[in-house]
Inverse folding.
């Protein structure tokens, strides 16, 4: 059976030693009182819930899956899921980082981020039920009317109701401009919605008395394409004026998808058969309103892969210490045993360190991003708010695509550490690989993320935001450039930072002449950018570790941080050279290959 220990010490390192979050919170009126002890105590309790309640349901949830009663359209998730959700609500976890005005506890997003890392390690399929609700909360908070906020937010915050995100239709996923669900005004301020949605996560279940669907649809006078999409809130049960549950709204689950992974989450086909909804935000501006939810979800998907990478690593590490097989190439390491533990073999160590580095880099990136979100929402200085917002926008596609692609590499490597046993269900390793696979697809495929990064966020503003990130790298290089001990961490990012400008200009120039050049380079480009970001974060983590060691701290934790950073720069970061080369190979070999693809 797999194991999971919440990585509290690693989280504390990133939160308190690398980013010194409580110093940052002091500048934000809403969080000025949040201290390290409070954060640590909350995360310790969160870890107990994740490891003790959600994790034991991971394998059974995968085996059992969800069941639909086609007569009633009701869905029963796997055994234990409902009870775990009840405990989650009783513990006040849905409210952790929500606005106190609606019953929230008002803690920073950064703390919620760590809660969700642990939940995702424990059970990604279960975690998607509360996870989607949090996204719906964010979208309604940003764009809902006062009435909608009053009706829905307290229930989403308390966890009494959950939320969903209904975008995808059978004929359109990436290209939402083609969506057909209709919304007709009823003359009383409400709309009648008709259409079909597919692939709706947490789309139906029995945890709560109501489900709040956020649905994209077209008004009768909508312009064609993505400029004609509006956002509606469509509850499963209508809500009476006094807030009580009203009659059933005709928005039904008509089927459940049979999937490769996340079996415990109900991925619903939804028929909307004249259901009543209300408009969220302005007419035809639904995609922009939904983007609040989608951006939160994109960071959330990166966090799913961080969670799976961490839990896969923990299991692979324990196995590699225990499993004996063959002798070390450099002589017996466990002479008392029949063979050496497999952790002595260089390639097994490489697989383990790959997963460890990808987990630690992702954790630092996720905390970095959520701290920027906290600043974007709550910093008193407008310039800090604006800069933080821009940086999160730049980093969001990197979190979504780089961390989930790395999660694929890492969970596969960890499964490989188990040899044939990794392929066998009872060890739980193949489930981590299967569950991670969807993270590269939903919330905009990783290809779409790379086009968003290169096309919109880099070339779209002539590299202005990228330069802002480059400035952060430049500051670190200036700070540590003369420190010999930091050279192995600083030199690679200084070099890549310089190359990045030329690389970006070159693709931009080629793309100006032929847009397919951008499409052909984007995926490689995002990975290079991802390594620049990870490189910066690993250098910062190494900086803290070196300072501690120089100050006489003998805790092996800091030596481990240095060794992981060293491994990262030696074995993972150098793929940037190959990626730049393949990006530069251009679009011609792809677009001229009609005969090969005939
Ligand atoms: C388990 C699961 C849960 C989901 N949950 C939700 C949910 O809760 N709510 C929701 O609304 N949706 C959800 N989805 C849908 C998901 O977001 C879409 O599947 C995804 O966005 C891709 O859309 P698609 O499947 O239609 O693929 P398509 O859009 O048909 O894409 C097919 C391929 O073409 C590529 N492609 C498309 N356009 C371009 C382009 N311009 N350039 C380069 N490549 C391109 C894509 O990258 C992809 O590889 C879920 C899907 C799954 C499987």
């Amino acid at each position: 059976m797999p194991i999971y220990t919440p990585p509290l010490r690693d989280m504390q390192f990133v939160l308190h030693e690398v980013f010194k979050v409580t110093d940052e919170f002091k500048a934000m009126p809403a969080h000025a009182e949040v201290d390290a002890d409070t954060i640590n105590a909350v995360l310790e309790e969160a870890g107990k819930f994740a490891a003790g309640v959600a994790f034991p349901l991971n394998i059974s949830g995968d085996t059992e899956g969800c069941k639909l009663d086609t007569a009633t359209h009701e869905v029963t998730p796997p055994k234990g899921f409902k009870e775990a959700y009840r405990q989650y609500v009783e513990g006040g976890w849905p409210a952790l980082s929500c606005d106190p005005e609606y019953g929230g506890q008002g803690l920073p997003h950064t703390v919620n981020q760590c809660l969700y890392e642990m939940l995702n390690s424990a059970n990604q399929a279960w975690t998607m039920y509360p996870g989607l609700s949090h996204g719906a909360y964010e979208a309604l908070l940003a764009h809902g009317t006062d009435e909608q906020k009053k009706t829905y937010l307290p229930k989403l915050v308390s966890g009494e109701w959950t939320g969903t995100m209904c975008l995808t239709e059978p004929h359109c996923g990436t290209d939402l401009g083609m969506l057909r669900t209709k919304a007709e005004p009823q003359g009383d301020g409400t709309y009648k919605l008709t259409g079909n949605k597919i692939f709706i996560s947490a789309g139906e279940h029995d945890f709560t008395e109501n489900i709040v669907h956020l649905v994209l649809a077209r008004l009768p006078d909508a312009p064609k394409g993505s400029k004609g999409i509006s956002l509606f809130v469509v509850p499963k049960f209508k809500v009476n004026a006094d807030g009580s549950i009203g009659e059933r709204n005709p928005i039904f689950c008509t089927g459940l998808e049979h999937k490769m992974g996340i079996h415990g989450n109900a991925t619903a086909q939804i028929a909307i058969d004249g259901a009543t909804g209300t408009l969220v935000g302005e007419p035809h501006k639904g995609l922009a309103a939904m983007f609040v939810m989608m951006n939160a979800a994109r960071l959330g998907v990166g966090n799913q892969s961080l969670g799976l990478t961490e839990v896969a690593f923990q299991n692979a590490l324990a196995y590699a210490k225990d499993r004996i097989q063959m002798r070390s190439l450099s002589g017996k390491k466990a002479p008392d045993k029949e063979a050496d533990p497999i952790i002595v073999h260089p390639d097994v160590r490489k697989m383990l360190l790959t997963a460890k580095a990808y987990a630690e880099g992702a954790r630092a990136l996720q905390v970095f991003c959520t701290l920027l979100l906290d600043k974007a929402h709550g910093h008193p200085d407008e310039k800090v708010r604006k800069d933080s917002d821009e940086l999160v926008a730049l980093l969001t596609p990197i979190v979504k695509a780089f961390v989930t692609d790395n999660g694929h590499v890492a969970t596969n490597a960890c499964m490989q550490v188990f040899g044939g046993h990794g392929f066998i269900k009872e060890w739980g390793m193949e489930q981590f690989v299967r569950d991670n696979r969807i993270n590269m697809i939903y919330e905009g495929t990783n290809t779409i993320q790379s086009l968003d990064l290169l096309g919109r966020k880099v070339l779209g503003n002539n590299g202005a935001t990228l330069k802002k990130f480059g400035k952060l790298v430049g500051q670190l290089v200036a700070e540590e450039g003369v420190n010999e001990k930091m050279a192995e961490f600083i030199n690679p990012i200084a070099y890549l930072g310089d190359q990045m400008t030329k690389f970006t200009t070159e693709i931009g120039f080629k793309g100006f002449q032929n847009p397919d050049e951008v499409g052909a380079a984007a995926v490689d480009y995002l990975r290079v950018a991802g390594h620049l970001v990870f490189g910066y974060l690993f250098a910062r983590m190494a900086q803290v570790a070196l300072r501690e060691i120089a100050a006489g701290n003998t805790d092996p934790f800091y030596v481990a941080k240095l060794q992981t950073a060293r491994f990262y720069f030696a074995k993972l970061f150098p793929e940037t050279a190959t990626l730049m080369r393949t990006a530069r190979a251009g679009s011609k070999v792809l677009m001229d290959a009609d005969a090969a693809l005939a």
